[in-house]
């Protein structure tokens, strides 16, 4: 909206206005209208603006772009920027594909304000610091103890701070600041600062029992000074300290420890002298003179550098850091922030957010849920702490943050949890990622314009109400919880309706399809995107995450998003993948050594952003020899593996169903090849045998010599919960006390990632806690996450001690459960495991099937149903099998076997998420879908209800009345005389292509990169694919 004088001053128009009406005359065009009305007149014709004319500050305001066009000029709208001109050249600012740098420059020059450092004062710094402090501890006004959610947050702050305080050491000659920490690595330094931070939060948060406790404050001051003298100070700056700052891990020195130190100094700023603050921050200031790396790392280091500058009232440095991270707001479609790929430098991509919502990081990995989330969660507070101050950020590209929410995050959250396919090397914590993103949205609200703020509040409210029992407050910071409470209590905010979308992430080979009642992700990889990440000894069995995995969840069933699902699923049997049964090596592959397929036909097309067709030419991982340089603790070479498995996989996403087709399934490695239809975690189990083991002893207490991670404590080994753990480093021990002497036969231990690595350790027993007898020295099997038995040699004792010697990939131990048993009568050292399998109902062709842990032959089955998940329709039958896995967390596995060395095999199945058994039966009798073709050249499916076809042209050719001259994916819908056509180039290599329709049509609406010509009896649609990067091009057509 602009005042009428805009049209006079910039366009030379004549304007008249009164309190009730207005008139604008430009050349031979005159428009007129009335205040508070959208309708206006152009000569004798009536029209209407999208917004009514308004009086603001005594002046009449009109929508600028619409008014300009009504006057005969050209207006270009890109985000918040409006550019107007009588000249066609202004159209150069239109943004058709990805990023238009000219538009960015014009917007920047239009909106950005350069701050004059000479006008900024210490009081301006204080205004920002006050906002920063609010983001840490809230305020007396907002910390509402009558609100149970807020009170619970404050109680947790108090408890954490009190626990840390109780573990503090203050003694002459002390070598540690807290009990339970033995410093051998930089991570222990960060853990020590974390405990000081917990104490400081308890001191500075209004409502805690420790709020402004003077004794607590004195101990915090002592701790900060001790850390300066012993861990993070002048000695380390001079290279004479306890550890070199260049040693692993850089993160602790530049981000990990500063993230706690700087807010401690913020909260207690008045209790330190200016010189003390300067001294405490000197090492950080030396290590981070400018933002480090890109993405979230750059933002993290910039944020804390700004915090350091604010604490020292260094306004020049604040502005410098603001300017240096401006690139963090930018999209990278144009190749910004390139990270070279050592094996093939030409195959590189920008690192960061793309306009389609993709977030690519660590060279070629999809990372929305990890590094993308972190960058977003840092940007929100970064913008908000400056909002309304003299340092307010005016860079117009900061408006992109709202776009990240709409495209990079909102479609990827369902029932409160993130999709696994964009979590990189972190296969778990999908729910935490979803919670964290809601927190980031709340943090960003203050920096948004009114329109985006209203949309985002509606999104937040919608996710919280659809959260499938998720308590968002528990994962939020106190200020985030305060904001969420306000949003949820505001009746003027209507929750966003359940999302119905088909969103193609063409820059990272991923698709998400949401229908309210279910959500599905298709995870692919190509010559452009790596298939999985496994650095730092994480996700070492993530081999097939991006080999066509279908990750779907149904409303009301969150089992498939739980950590348990991803921890215990068979990594060789992920749903949707086509895979051979050869054994893979579980190793950590250094960045740059990852596998890239040679196949570029991988992508998807969307129609109306509602329906989609995806396709992947699968080329399974293979490597003739172990390749790539070692990355030290980050990983090593890509291992050798011989597999020539290939398949052409296609996915057709409609309303009630997702159709999955496979053709040209070929392999010759003497291994069975499977296509996994589904793999779902059972909601209930049953015991099929009555094996009983002796009862474990009750442990009176447990104590660890070292607890570097505050939440991962020794008591977690006794809570019968595989989701918790005790973690520590090499040399640490943990002692269980039985309270009195007992006969000790054996003990069982379970380790996180126990199926992926071997834990090395010794076991000892003792009667007095001083004299110890070794009973075991060795390692776990590396084959299970469940308990394994280890001998205690039938000794007598009160205490049992575990001594960590590291694991097969690192120095750490992550123990989830421990139990101590008397001797078994037969002398064995194993708990006899009951035969536990799933008990959810499984029906095939109307017959209740009692699945066991043995393969159940379902050849020729037309339909099946699995309780609490939904149905499956098999239009062509097939060599189908099913079973339950035998374990406490039992999975229903359903798959096609293509046999050993398959040649030109196919498969076809339809997922019917959320349908009942009866609905599935009726669907199989009269299916909504029809498989039109499933060959190596062409795969096609028609939805009869929608009259919508998805077609994968693996080669140029014809199908029905459609002919294409290049490989592509096409969708076509014909309804009410209208034809809608969408297409994409999945290879991302073609410059142009044509679609010929055997009838005469005229375009009523089309993508700017699409043109149509009718000649004779045909219509030729020309697609300009230059730099389209697999983006969907869509047009609407009517009979000529």
List keywords for this structure.
single chain, 1040 residues, alpha+beta, 7-stranded antiparallel beta sheet, 23% helix, 30% strand
Distance between the termini: 39 Å
Classify the secondary structure makeup into a structural class.
alpha+beta
Largest sheet: 9 strands, antiparallel
Give the CA-based shape.
globular
Q: What's the β-strand tally?
A: 54
β content, as a range?
A: 25-35%
What helical percentage do the residues reach? Answer: 10-25%
**Strand order within the widest beta sheet:** 21-22-23-24-42-39-38-35-36
**What is the residue-mean pLDDT, rounded to a whole number?**
93
- Alpha-carbon Rg, integer: 31 Å
- List the uncertain runs: none
- Helix tally equals 20
């Amino acid at each position: 909206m602009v005042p009428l004088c805009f049209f006079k001053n910039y366009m030379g128009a004549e304007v008249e206005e009164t309190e009730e009406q207005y008139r604008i005359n430009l050349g031979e065009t005159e428009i007129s209208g009335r205040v508070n009305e959208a309708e206006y007149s152009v000569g004798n014709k009536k029209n209407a603006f999208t917004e009514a004319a308004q009086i603001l500050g005594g002046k009449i305001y009109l929508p600028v772009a619409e008014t300009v066009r009504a006057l005969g000029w050209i207006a270009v709208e890109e985000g918040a920027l409006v550019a107007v001109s009588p000249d066609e050249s202004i159209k150069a600012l239109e943004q058709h594909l990805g990023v238009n740098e000219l538009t960015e420059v014009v917007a920047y020059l239009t909106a950005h304000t350069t701050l004059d450092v000479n006008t900024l004062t210490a009081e301006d710094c204080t205004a920002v610091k006050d906002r920063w402090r609010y983001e840490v501890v809230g305020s007396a006004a907002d910390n509402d103890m009558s609100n149970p959610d807020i009170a619970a947050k404050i109680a947790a702050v108090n408890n954490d701070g009190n626990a840390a305080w109780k573990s503090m050491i203050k003694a002459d000659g002390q070598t540690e600041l807290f009990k339970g920490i033995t410093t051998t690595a930089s991570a222990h330094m960060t853990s020590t600062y974390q405990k000081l931070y917990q104490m400081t939060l308890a001191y500075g948060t209004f409502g805690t029992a420790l709020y402004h406790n003077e004794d607590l404050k004195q101990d915090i001051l002592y701790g900060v000074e001790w850390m300066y003298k012993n861990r993070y100070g002048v000695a380390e700056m001079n290279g004479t300290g306890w550890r070199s700052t260049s040693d692993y891990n850089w993160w602790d020195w530049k981000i990990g420890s500063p993230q706690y130190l700087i807010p401690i100094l913020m909260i207690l700023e008045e209790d330190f002298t200016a010189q003390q603050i300067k001294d405490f921050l000197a090492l950080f200031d030396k290590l981070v003179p400018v933002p480090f790396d890109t993405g979230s790392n750059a933002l993290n280091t910039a944020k804390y550098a700004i915090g350091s500058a604010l604490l020292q009232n260094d306004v020049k440095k604040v502005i410098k850091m603001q300017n240096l991270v401006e690139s963090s707001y930018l999209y990278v479609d144009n190749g910004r922030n390139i990270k070279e790929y050592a094996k093939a430098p030409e195959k590189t991509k920008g690192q960061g957010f793309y306009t389609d919502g993709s977030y690519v990081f660590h060279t070629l990995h999809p990372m929305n849920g990890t590094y993308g989330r972190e960058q977003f969660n840092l940007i929100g507070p970064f913008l908000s702490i400056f909002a309304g101050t003299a340092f307010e950020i005016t860079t117009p590209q900061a408006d992109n943050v709202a776009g990240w929410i709409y495209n990079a995050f909102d479609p990827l959250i369902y029932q409160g949890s993130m999709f696994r396919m964009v979590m990189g090397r972190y296969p778990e914590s999908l729910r935490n990622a979803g919670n964290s993103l809601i927190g980031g949205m709340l943090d960003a609200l203050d920096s948004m314009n009114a329109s985006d703020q209203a949309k985002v509040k509606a999104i937040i409210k919608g996710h919280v109400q659809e959260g499938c029992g998720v308590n968002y407050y528990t994962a939020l910071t106190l200020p985030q919880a305060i904001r969420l409470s306000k949003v949820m209590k505001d009746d003027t905010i209507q929750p966003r309706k359940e999302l119905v979308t088909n969103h193609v992430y063409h820059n990272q080979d991923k698709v998400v399809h949401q229908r309210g009642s279910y959500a599905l992700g298709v995870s692919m990889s190509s010559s452009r995107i790596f298939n999985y990440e496994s650095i730092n000894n994480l996700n070492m069995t993530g081999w097939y995450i991006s080999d066509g995995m279908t990750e779907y969840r149904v409303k009301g069933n969150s089992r498939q998003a739980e950590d348990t699902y991803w921890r215990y699923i068979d990594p060789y049997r992920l749903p949707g993948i086509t895979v051979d049964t050869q054994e893979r090596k579980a190793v950590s592959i250094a960045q740059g050594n990852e596998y890239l397929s040679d196949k570029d036909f991988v992508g998807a097309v969307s129609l109306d952003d509602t329906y989609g067709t995806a396709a992947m030419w699968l080329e399974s991982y293979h490597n003739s020899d172990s390749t790539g340089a070692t990355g030290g603790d980050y990983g090593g070479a890509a291992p050798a593996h011989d597999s020539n498995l290939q398949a052409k996989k296609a996915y057709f996403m409609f309303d009630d169903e997702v159709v999955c087709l496979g053709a040209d399934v070929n392999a010759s490695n003497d291994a069975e090849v499977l296509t996994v239809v589904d793999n779902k975690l059972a909601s209930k189990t049953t015991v099929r045998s009555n094996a009983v083991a002796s009862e474990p002893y009750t442990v009176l207490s447990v104590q660890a010599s070292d607890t570097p991670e505050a939440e991962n404590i020794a008591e977690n080994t006794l809570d019968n919960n595989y989701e918790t753990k005790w973690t520590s480093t090499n040399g640490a021990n943990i002692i269980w006390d039985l309270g009195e002497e007992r006969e000790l036969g054996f003990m069982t231990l379970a380790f996180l990632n126990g199926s992926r690595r071997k834990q090395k350790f010794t076991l000892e027993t003792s009667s007095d806690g001083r004299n110890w007898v070794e009973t075991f020295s060795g390692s776990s099997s590396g084959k299970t996450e469940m308990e394994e038995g280890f001998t205690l040699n039938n000794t007598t004792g009160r205490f049992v001690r575990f001594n960590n010697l590291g694991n097969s990939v690192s120095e750490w131990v992550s123990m989830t459960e421990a139990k101590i048993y008397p001797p078994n009568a037969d002398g064995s050292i194993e708990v006899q495991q009951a035969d536990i399998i799933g008990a959810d109902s499984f029906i095939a062709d109307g017959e209740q099937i009692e699945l066991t842990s043995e393969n159940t032959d379902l050849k020729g089955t037309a339909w099946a149903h699995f309780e609490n998940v939904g149905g499956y329709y098999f239009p062509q039958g097939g060599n189908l099998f099913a079973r339950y896995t035998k374990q406490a967390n039992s999975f229903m596995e359903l798959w096609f076997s293509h046999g050993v060395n398959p040649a030109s095999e196919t498969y076809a199945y339809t997922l019917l998420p959320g349908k009942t058994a009866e609905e599935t039966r009726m669907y199989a009798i009269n299916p909504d879908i029809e498989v039109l073709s499933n060959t190596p050249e062409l795969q096609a499916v028609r939805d009869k209800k929608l009259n919508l076809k998805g077609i994968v042209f693996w080669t140029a050719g014809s199908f029905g009345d459609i002919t294409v001259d290049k490989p592509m994916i096409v969708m076509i819908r014909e309804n009410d005389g209208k034809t809608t056509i969408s297409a994409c180039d999945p290879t991302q290599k073609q410059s142009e292509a044509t679609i010929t329709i055997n009838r005469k049509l005229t375009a009523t609406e089309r993508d700017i990169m699409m043109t149509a010509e009718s000649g004779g009896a045909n219509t030729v649609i020309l697609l300009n694919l230059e730099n389209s990067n697999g983006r969907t091009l869509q047009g609407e057509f009517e009979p000529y």
